[in-house]
UniProtKB/TrEMBL annotation:
Keywords: Flavoprotein, FMN, Oxidoreductase, RNA-binding, tRNA processing
InterPro entries xref list: Aldolase_TIM, dsRBD_dom, DUS-like_FMN-bd, DUS2_DSRM, tRNA-DUS-like, tRNA_hU_synthase_CS
Natural source organism: Branchiostoma floridae (Florida lancelet)
Cofactor(s) annotated in UniProt: FMN
GO BP annotations listed: tRNA dihydrouridine synthesis
Composition skew (Basic and acidic residues), residue ranges: 477-487, 519-543
Pfam families: dsrm, Dus
Protein name stated in the entry: tRNA-dihydrouridine(20) synthase [NAD(P)+]-like isoform X1
Biased composition regions of type Polar residues, renumbered to the chain: 495-518
Amino acid sequence: MTSNTGGASSRLNYADKVMLAPMVRIGTLPARLLALDYGADVVYCEELIDHSMLQCQRVENELLDTIDFIKEQAHHPVFRTCAKERDRVVFQMGTADPERALKVAKLVENDVAGIDVNMGCPKEYSTKGGMGAALLSNPEKIKQILTTLVNGVSIPVTCKIRILPKLEDTLSLVQLIESTGVAAVAVHGRYKEERPRHPVHADVIKAISQAVSIPVIANGGSGVINRYEDLQRFREDTGASSVMVARAAQWNFSIFRPEGMLPVDDVIRDYLRYAVDYDNVALNSKYVLQQILQAEQQSPRGQKLLATQALREMCALWDMADYYDEVQVRRQAKQEELERKKGLSRYEPRLVDGIYTMHVEYIRKEYPSAVSPKTILLNWSRTEYLPQPTYETVKQGSDTKFNSVVTVGDKRYASSFWHKAKKLAEQAAASVCLRTLGLHDGKLQAYITEAKDDGKRHVEAHGKSPSVESPQRKKCRTEEADVAKMDDNEDGSEGQISQSKVHTDVETSQMKDVQQTLKADHRVTKHGDGDGVRGGKCHGTDS
Ligand SMILES: Cc1cc2nc3c(=O)[nH]c(=O)nc-3n(C[C@H](O)[C@H](O)[C@H](O)COP(=O)(O)O)c2cc1C
């Protein structure tokens, strides 16, 4: 089969390929990159539902060098991709509507190599919305969706189907699919009602391969695929152009290695490296590791894995805690570098008409749900025995923008950014105050890209580095991100613990953690004259 060359962007060709099949929860970025490293030519992401994607914004994550599609208020992206897979990743969506499908396809078009529509998922959560296998009995809808996509995007479009009870119906369906202009069709050789334990119908895939001229991607053979050579055999048995595997890869991603499969422990270490590099959600990583371990989950190490919550703990089980720590240090340094590049002057507080002013936009999703600059500032004022901060807000012009000034003690603080709502403007003012005082405003670490140089100088002068996150806070942040991903998960499959209580506990603990940080900072600040900072400079006593 073809070799992995990566490199320059070219239209994805689906002929003569081995592929990683779409798998909910498994097919996130680390697994896809690993499959590519081992020899897969093309990798599909997990199915992502159109409604969910349409709530996402595209964000270039400079810290991780990724493109993230992230929902407002969420702490972890619904879809993360990167340049390394740009030319070989296929974005699979669940949809029942041509217009929604097109909007999603346009959203990701420049970051992926192809678009696929899932027409094979037999699960109720998919079919009851008219998606997945429900589409198989609605050829008109299939035609509309595929035609709209083919005409609407510049990258290849495909779909993944199951077979129908009658061969002639299956053949008519694939011919209709071919007529829409798709680049290929993936066929899971099972009927809608059949489960993975049922033998795959290689003969039906073969008949399909003979009935159309676009590449057919044979799928469903994991039960008979135990090593690399079996991929080739399955391809011959089905007469297909390409082969796509799900479970065989889930058990051991090195199934794609022409040189032979690697021991599971090696695969796990390679997986963890990517999980760490791309800050993959811990619970997602854990789920993937559990699938790789299979029966070994009962082993002492499998039991220890079950008890882990954070990625570092998982790394420690495979002697990779040092790697995790090294990456965190490198990431911290990169973050500081980005901060320096971005905004030294923008975030230097200036005294404008007696008001400490910075250009700060408050974006709600960048803060944990239980934490906001206003609540932090209120708590801080209480511990300082200062009166409650007061906010004065003004409205501007016909486009109705708001700007707030917060008064704390005898000082006033404001952002020069005009917000769309009063409450956002107040949060921004509170954030400016906290930053000017050298205090953490609660923003999630992942979003901190602007300079906090003023605060840093203030605290460093007292021998305390604010930029190093406490292990406790880091753990809380990781857990919260995991929880958010679980909330976002489209799979809905069993085997996961209930998350709602964890969420509450994490938020409470995170709030406490922020407050502890504030108390520590406050003690530092009190060494000075109760203000400690003028225009970003420290005037407190040396300690
Ligand atoms: C854990 C898991 C998740 C899956 N998620 C998806 C999915 O998101 N989209 C999809 O089209 N098929 C999904 N499938 C089905 C597989 O892509 C594939 O069609 C099926 O497992 C048969 O291939 P195999 O014999 O190689 O496992 C999933 C299968 C598994 C095991």
